[in-house]
Amino acid sequence: MSFRNTTYVEDVSPGSGALPPRAWYASSDAKSLSLNGSWRFRLSPTADAEDDSFAAEGYDAEDWASVTVPGHWVLQGHGAFGAPIYTNHLYPFPVDPPYVPTDNPTGDHLRVFDLPEDWPGAGDAVLRFDGVESCARVWLNGTELGEFKGSRLPHEFAVGRLLRPGGNVLAVRVHQWSAGSYLEDQDQWWLPGIFRDVTLLHRPAGAVGDFFVHASYDHVTGEGTLRVESEVEGRVTVPALGIDVATGESVTVPVEPWSAEIPRLYDGELATLGERVPLRIGFRTVLLEDGLIKVNGKAILFKGVNRHEWHPEKGRALGLATMREDVLLMKRHNLNAVRTSHYPPHPAFLDLCDELGLWVIDECDLETHGFTEQDWRDNPVDDDRWTPALLDRAARMVERDKNHPSVVFWSLGNEAGTGRGLTAMAEWIHGRDPDRLVHYEGDWDCRNTDVYSRMYAFHDEVEKIGRGLDGGTHKRRELPFIQCEYAHAMGNGPGGLADYQELFERYDRLQGGFVWEWIDHGIKHPDLGYAYGGDFGEELHDGNFVCDGLIFPDRRPSPGLVEYKKVIEPVRIEGDGADGTVRVVNKYDFADLSALAFEWSYQVDGETVEAGALSVPALAPGESADVKLPEPPAHGRDGEAQWTVRALLAADTVWASKDHEVAWAQLPVTERIKPSVAASDRPTASERLICLGPASFDARTGALKTIGGVEVTAPRLDVWRAPTDNDDGAEWQSDTRYGLLWRKFGLHRMHHRLDAVELGESALTVRTRVAPAAWEIGLSTVYRWTSDGNRLKLTVSVTPEGDWTVPLPRLGIRFGLAEADAVRWFGGGPGEAYPDSQSASMLGRWHSTVDELQTPYVRPQENGARADVRWVELGGLRIEGDPEFWFTARRWTSEHLDAARHLTDLTPGDRVWVNLDHGQHGIGSQSCGPGPLPQYLLRAEPAEFSFVFSEVR
Ligand code: GAL
């Protein structure tokens, strides 16, 4: 029996052989060589299955497979290299720290490289790994360099002495599981591999080592103070500011400050004897004052999101273009902050945040959530043996990222309980960088933190905190509050965002939050569309809980992002359309409104009849002004009229082009004229049919068959919707979970009993009772049909019977059409909306197709409703509502939608199913947060609503 040297895998230490951490930068003149690309690869089942002879020179790896670096091997090789595993917080191996399973997929990576011709002969060199999951051992030209853990952190090795011009052999052994895995229990896929860049950096004699840019801003004097501490002495120049000082020396000059809204960066340079390094300097001061987080003297409001790194094919190995796309999408949707949940991102992402402007909470690569299953017993963060590993992680994050003005908070990690290790991290960070604040959510007493942070606190608790009535330690009571996670964006939703925002804006102590989360971590799959937990046959998994983002895996914005954009818009436009004045409020923290151009337009029945520019003063932050609208156009007085006022970018910016819409509002002027149909036609019956106006009905059942030439599957009352993830709620939620209650009470299997078909003088009346088997509750439902000869009106009256203790998913009718494709409507759009997620629904005339009306939630569920619809045309019919209604159309039924697990399960049937709803239940965010607020519940109450049908040719 042989025990090869694999003890380092289960060693709590962070590793050995690596250089001390330092700032991450790209040199202007020192050479570098990217070692990204195709590497030779061999996978073995255990850490010690193979010896390390592959690292020796001359090893023949010709018959090995290959993988792309950066990359995760489980996402390459078409299944030949194992599969991803998704767990939320459960460790996918027995919990016995620091030990890991014998079955420990181990990937040997080999790369042979030559130095470029112009690689300098003199000087040293450093080999940098930006991210390897979870533990790596490294050799160059047969010499072992060391081993390390800390997956999303950089590690460097001095290699100059080992390099030669040609045929360098770099060997890296990567173990999927290690002691480090216990510290990396984030809610995400477990994805081993060398997933960030590998780079060889030349280090000339006299090169820059580590350096720390301190650039503060005094909002009283308008001056910035710059001091660059540098391990190697040199000079610092900033031409635009006339700065030319020695390192270590401080200089104060008038500057424009950096903020997420106006990300003013000054280009500078740090020059030592042997190297020049470009600096991008942003002057800003972050501090806690008057119980508030202030930047440059002003309290800020985070309108943030939690971002995991994700790409549907590459996992966490993102390219620069993807990172940029994320930041651009955030900026274009009015976000101003990002929490790098739950590890430091690729460093280039932070460059983008500096450049384009986002506040950043930079979070350490630390989570031990699985220990919650044993009441946090043996939690590494409360065990001194692990403290060196924790401090190593803190240092690798802070040292790497300390020169980014965008980073305003260091976060110790996520969901790691509490313990001395965390305190040690906080103390070290405060000492090393007193100019930033420390965040950690798990510390409700705020012993180690500078902010009281929580996740998924319900609206009422947030309000209590806002009012300072929440209790807690004395320290906590003096701190500001943020929700580092809220509004769980899993599937359809989140609902209730506007209600949170209203609280954040009402109470000073509430400094905003970070929606959970940015992107669905769906994995592109040949048969399933996007795969989620369980799709790879994992022993333990958490299903589609990994798909809870504001953007779909392909980065298309979901309705949740569009809603969030509207809710956090930086300009409030309000007023009374009838009196012709709008109030414009600047809600930016720093920017005035000079970058925006305002426009008005006037719509009658959804059609714009006139539009023009609106002159709005360049209000300072917090200021407001009343602005007079023009006289309403004379030709637009009959019909439903409204103003739409929009704030657009006045010129191109780095993140969006001119005319990009930033904010908008609609102000009603005159009310809608409701459809009216004189009940002048009389229903007539023959043996099989009843005829009324343009319609025919089944004589026995009273079921509608045709409207003119359009054949329909008869409308019936419908209360069921395919439960959303938020309807179903998370399994740990003890609160009422409506999705489950609906099934318990059989709302997905209602029986329709026919009680009477009555032909009256001017109406056909069909009486029914709609009720679930096994229960006494029911809905007495009367359909009353009338016509003026041309148009057909249906009035539905619903009276609940029995003891209804649950709200309804929806209340309306559903019918089928043999054919329908193009859809036009006047109502809310262009996207979907639900009662507590309808801020972004804009009243207008819209058109689409049945297929485009669908929102592709990775796990299929209720979606696609359009709100406030006055009328809709599809399949040869025009339908007007009294009152306005929710409209949904799809090529499958709600029952099919409910049964589907992936989008690929949804196959069009021979009908288009149309729902016209009088009511929809709210969405909430109970998949990890509160359910819908009481005002958004669809209670079973008596209701009456009508639709007018006519044929369109
Ligand atoms: C939080 C956690 C996140 C994620 C979220 C639910 O508890 O910090 O990582 O798991 O819940 O999606």
From TrEMBL:
SMART domains: Bgal_small_N (SM01038). This is Beta-galactosidase. One of its GO terms (biological process) is lactose catabolic process. GO terms for cellular component: beta-galactosidase complex. GO terms for molecular function: beta-galactosidase activity; carbohydrate binding. Keywords: Glycosidase, Hydrolase. It catalyses: Hydrolysis of terminal non-reducing beta-D-galactose residues in beta-D-galactosides. Gene3D superfamilies: 2.70.98.10, Galactose-binding domain-like, Glycosidases, Immunoglobulins. It comes from the Bacteria. InterPro entries: B-gal_small/dom_5, Bact_Beta-galactosidase, Beta-gal/glucu_dom_sf, Gal_mutarotase_sf_dom, Galactose-bd-like_sf, GH, GH-type_carb-bd, Glyco_hydro_2. Residues 691-950 form the Beta galactosidase small chain/ domain. Pfam families: Bgal_small_N (PF02929), Glyco_hydro_2_C (PF02836), Glyco_hydro_2_N (PF02837), LacZ_4 (PF16353). Its EC number is 3.2.1.23. It is an enzyme of class 3 (hydrolase). The keyword Hydrolase applies. It comes from Streptomyces cupreus. Belongs to the glycosyl hydrolase 2 family.
